[in-house]
Amino acid sequence: MxxxxxxxxxxxxxxxxxxxxxxxxxxxxxxxRKLGNGLFAYLPLGLxxxxxxxxxxxxxxxxxxxxxxxxxxxxxxxxWKESGRWDSMGESLLKVKNRLDxxxxxxxxxxxxxxxxxxxxxxxxxxxxxxxxxxxxxxRDEIRPRYGVMRGRxxxxxxxxSFHADDESLDKTxxxxxxxxxxxxxxxxxxxxxxxxxxxxxxxxxxxxxxVESGIGDNTLLLCGGNRSQSCAYAANVEKAECRDDxxxxxxxxxxxxxxxxxPPIEKIDTPQVKTIxxxxxxxxxxxxxxxxxxxxxxxxxxxxxxAEGPVVPEAFYxxxxxxxxxxxxxxxxxxLRASEVSLASQADTxxxxxxxxxxxxxxxxxxxxVIADASVTAIHDGVTGALEKDxxxxxxxxxxxxxxxxxxDVREVKAGDGCPLCAAxxxxxxxxxxxxxxxxxxxxxxxxxxxxxxxxxxxHIPTMGCYGIGLDRTMASVIExxxxxxxxxxxxxxxxxxxxxxxxxxxxxxxTEADKLCQYLEAAGIxxxxxxxxxxxxxxxKDADLLGIPYRVVIGDKNLAGDTPKVEIKRxxxxxxxxxxxxxxxxxxxxxxMADFAGLNG
Length: 603
Ligand code: ATP
Ligand code: MG
Description:
Blueprint: H1 21-28, E1 32-36, E2 39-42, H2 44-63, E3 67-68, E4 74-76, H3 77-83, H4 85-88, E5 94-97, E6 103-106, H5 111-121, E7 130-139, E8 154-164, H6 167-187, E9 193-196, E10 206-213, E11 219-224, E12 235-237, H7 253-261, E13 267-270, H8 277-284, E14 292-302, E15 313-323, H9 330-337, E16 341-344, H10 347-354, E17 371-374, H11 375-378, E18 383-389, E19 392-397, E20 407-409, E21 427-442, H12 444-448, E22 453-454, E23 460-461, E24 464-471, H13 472-482, E25 484-485, E26 488-489, E27 500-504, H14 509-524, E28 529-531, H15 538-548, E29 552-556, H16 558-561, E30 567-572, E31 578-582, H17 583-602
Parallel strand pairs: 3-7, 15-17, 17-20, 27-28, 27-29
Antiparallel strand pairs: 1-2, 4-6, 5-6, 7-8, 8-24, 9-10, 10-21, 11-12, 11-21, 13-19, 14-15, 14-16, 18-19, 21-24, 22-23, 25-26, 29-30, 30-31
Helix pairs in contact: 1-13, 2-6, 2-13
Bound molecules: adenosine-5'-triphosphate and magnesium ion.
Adenosine-5'-triphosphate binds near residues 151, 434 and 435.
């Protein structure tokens, strides 16, 4: 392809809202332009790379035995009403009406569409497992689109859905997908960190996210310090992370009674204006570990307990207790409660529901709300907590004797420095961005949408499901985040829009002849070549070649062509130095270098 005939509007200036390298470079290198907030158009160069990401994903999905389908992007609202997500998905779901006043959804994901297709066709166990995927447009009305295509409103996702007769079959496909994802990201030249993830209100049983480390990452990852020595590979999203307890959890009822017997009777103490844990520590001269902190949370769209029937409760309040030095993880709490979201209740709601001012809330005698206790609380047998009265706390509080919780669970937010749950080494944190997600979904959609099949005895069953997503735009942007320098992009050969760029110092005379010849030879060998035929100064062409990030640059100049053995200059984008190579050997050398690079990433 000749540069002058393509459409590569490079920029020296950067759009003001482009704060991360990939966003800046995608604009500067002419890969993208913005159509609206969170809406981006790929230009020819960008689309070439995008299609390569797509191709890698497609090859690996096909190799894993998945079958490609193409549902519509606009989906009847009915399907979303059946699953319940018409109401529970929130503001990010774009709903539209047509001229007949019928409801539609612009797909943010496609569990409904695919389950809708499958349930109409599924009849026998012989059709299972059924493994389907699409690579298609998604729309999410993100409240704050940012970082270019990293978080857009319209984007492309590879989303796959698997249907199984039993958990073993689901487990196998889930493992296969984990391996396919590792290959996909390796082929894209990306270093990913797979982490255990929250399976959330969806009620799934296993979930793994594929993260790239990023200063602007929306996710906090907890990694085992032992990781570095390969002794332990624990890695989890903070939403899911567990840690080694620094307390003896949940004593048996017998032990609890014994401990309580050694605790003096519960007693009220005056604590005028002492409303915070810090103030309480100072006032009582004791440690935050002795305090039972009680917080009121508001949960929305609470599903019935696993296995139980019942409606989704749109709003519910809970008192959540945790040891004074710990914080509650809202993601873990939402997952335990099977709520789509939880947040701290307002002061007004808290005071109204507990009948006591903020700062003096506690679980003893609290009957107006269900009490959820973090496991840490059950280990406190001589604690301090709010007495549900202004300026009063209780001391000598014992779990089991003075109050009980409806649910004892782990809602503790794990922090850097906490102990690894596997090997007890210290955990540390990193910021990460999610590129992909694999998820054992279970029967949520197949149940609510009435999918079933008959087993070999003619008995009806509900299939179990897995779902598996990768964002293509975000993957492409992350490749640039990982591979660039001050001068521009440094594409891995697998994703590069072209693998080589030929830059004649001037596109005329012998330089033109040799440039054209080399270009033809390389193209015949299957190499994708951009030929910079523009009438620009060499400095401008070199700068653009660096900005575009084409892996190999060949400079053809009069000086090097003159003499007994004409030469050209070959430079790898990622190296500083160029090499002089005999003209006759240039094509062969380039081809073998490029093939070797491919083999390194694809191997
Ligand atoms: P996030 O937490 O970043 O919003 P998510 O957990 O909602 O992502 P999933 O529903 O798991 O995302 O979607 C699968 C993949 O789709 C993500 O891993 C990501 O690569 C991509 N993706 C999701 N939202 C966006 C977006 N707004 N822009 C670009 N890609 C996105
Ligand atoms: Mg996700």
